[in-house]
Write a structure and sequence with these properties.
With 295 residues, this protein is an alpha/beta fold. The protein is 41% helix and 16% strand. The protein has one domain: Rossmann fold (3-Layer(aba) Sandwich), CATH 3.40.50.150.
Length: 295
């Protein structure tokens, strides 16, 4: 559905994207055979989430579903490895403390803008999380606030940080500062973060850029892996959305010409070659590299 000419974008700022993501998870949960169940997503998305989603292509909801599967798998591996502290920075309307089979002793800390958390707490007031849930109001791009928060929350025990749909909205200076701060957090064993390729940026700009208002992707380093390697991080795992979709029998709903290219050339690696769609976008589990971070 197209907006009338001259209409303001439905997404005015980054916080509004949380409604789009919640709606996508609600739609997946309502499928006859969903790939995951998020029973609270529809309540959080409300009418606003549906209105925003109506102007986006099917690829958007598909991407949310695939990234949810990948992140859930990373988190499950973390708590099976004994991690009991999780920091969800820029948590938005995520409901993992309510829907995942988390051990009850897990401490899950959500941080986001105060108005986002206030809305979320109001909607979920009658719901009980499965673990020890805390919420902290925070402007993640504010260096002083972020460093104070990390110093207060991270006590030295092993922890994993999740920044789902956060880093793409930061510029390179802000992303570098965040990477440096997290690299210095005692006990941190993993950082789950978006990977977005240049091809994915171009596709997003062309298909949905006009709907995004001030919520444009700004983090576009020429060498994504090199950017984080230079700040003391190495990749433990990088899982791609296209490969996840093929794994679970839900291929990406690309436009017809891209589907044709996938059919002709293949989406994934064959005989040691990288398919043209394999690295379109994904999620990485980064871990601190030895020797400390560089400036």
């Amino acid at each position: 559905m197209a907006l009338p000419p001259g209409s303001p974008p439905l997404i005015q700022d980054v916080s509004d994207t949380a409604f789009l993501v919640a709606h996508a998870r609600a739609v997946e949960s309502a499928r006859p055979k969903p790939l995951f169940s998020d029973p609270l997503a529809a309540k959080l998305a409300g009418e606003k989430g549906g209105a925003i989603a109506a102007v986006f292509p099917p690829m958007t909801a598909w991407s949310v579903t695939m990234r949810t599967l990948i992140i859930d798998r990373f988190l499950k591996q973390a708590w099976e490895d004994g991690v009991r502290l999780f920091l969800n920075l820029g948590a938005g309307l995520d409901t993992r403390p309510y829907r995942l089979e988390l051990p009850p002793e897990v401490r899950w800390v959500e941080a986001d803008y105060p108005h986002v958390l206030a809305y979320k707490e109001g909607v979920l007031a009658q719901e009980a999380p499965r673990c020890r849930l805390e919420r902290r109001g925070l402007d993640l791009a504010d260096d002083s606030q972020r460093r104070t928060f990390l110093a207060e929350v991270a006590t030295g025990e092993r922890l994993v940080v999740l920044t789902e749909g956060v880093v793409p909205y930061l510029d390179e200076t802000e992303a570098g500062a965040l990477a440096g701060d997290l690299r210095n957090v005692p006990g941190l064993v993993g950082w789950i973060v978006d990977y977005v390729s240049p091809e994915s940026h171009r596709y997003r700009d062309r298909r949905v850029g006009r709907h995004l208002g001030r919520a444009q992707f700004k983090f576009r380093p020429s060498d994504w892996l090199g950017f984080f390697a230079g700040r003391g991080w190495k990749v433990r795992s990088l899982d791609y959305l296209v490969e996840e979709g093929l794994r679970v029998g839900r291929p990406p709903p690309f436009p017809w010409h891209l589907r044709l290219l996938m059919k002709l050339f293949g989406p994934v690696a064959r005989h040691g070659q990288r398919g043209p769609f394999r690295g379109f976008a994904g999620y990485a589990w980064l871990e601190p590299a030895g020797g400390g971070a560089s400036s």
